[in-house]
C-alpha cells in the first residue's frame, strides 16, 4: 500500500504555457522589413514610369495640336515643345544652355536614328525661312520624327 499511497499523492502533469506568436522572432522582422522595402522601391519606380508616360502623353497631345493648326509659327512652337520635353527628361543645366548647333547635336545624340538631315536643317534654319515656302511633306516628316523622339525619351528621368 505504500506504493498506492505514494501514487495518490502525485499530482497531474502541468504542461508549460503555449509559446506566443508575439513578439515575432528576428527572422520574421527581417522578412517583413525586406518586403516593405521591396514594395516601396517598386511603388517609386511605378510612379516614376507613370509620370514619364503622363509627360510624354501631354507632349504628344500638344504636338498633335501644333500639327493640326495652320499657324505660321508652328516651327517655333515645335522647337519650344521639344525644348520643354528635354528640360523635363534631361538635366536642366545641360539642356537650358543649348543653342542652334549644340541643340541639333543634342537632338541627334538623344534621338537614336530618329532625325533625318532634312528635318534637322529645317529645325536649324527653318525659323528664318518663310513658313509658307516649307513643303507640307517636310512639315509632316518633321512632326512625325518629333513624335517618334518624344515616344523614345528615356524612363530614367533626372528632373521628374
Mind explaining what this structure looks like?
- This protein has helices at residues 2-9, 26-68, 74-89, 92-96, 100-111, 117-125, 136-151.
- The chain is an all-alpha fold and 160 residues long.
- It has a domain at 52-151.
- Helix 2 (26-68) runs antiparallel to helix 3 (74-89), helix 2 packs antiparallel against helix 7 (136-151) and helix 6 crosses helix 7.
Mean residue pLDDT: 88
Q: What is the general shape?
A: rod-shaped
Number of strands: 0
Distance between the termini: 90 Å
Radius of gyration, in Å, reads 33 Å
Low-confidence stretches: none
Helix content: 55-70%
Question: How would you classify the quaternary structure?
Answer: single chain
Portion in strands: under 5%
List the helices and strands and how they pair.
Blueprint: H1 2-9, H2 26-68, H3 74-89, H4 92-96, H5 100-111, H6 117-125, H7 136-151
How would you briefly describe this protein structure?
With 160 residues, this protein is an all-alpha fold.
Structural features:
single chain; 7 helices; mainly alpha; 160 residues
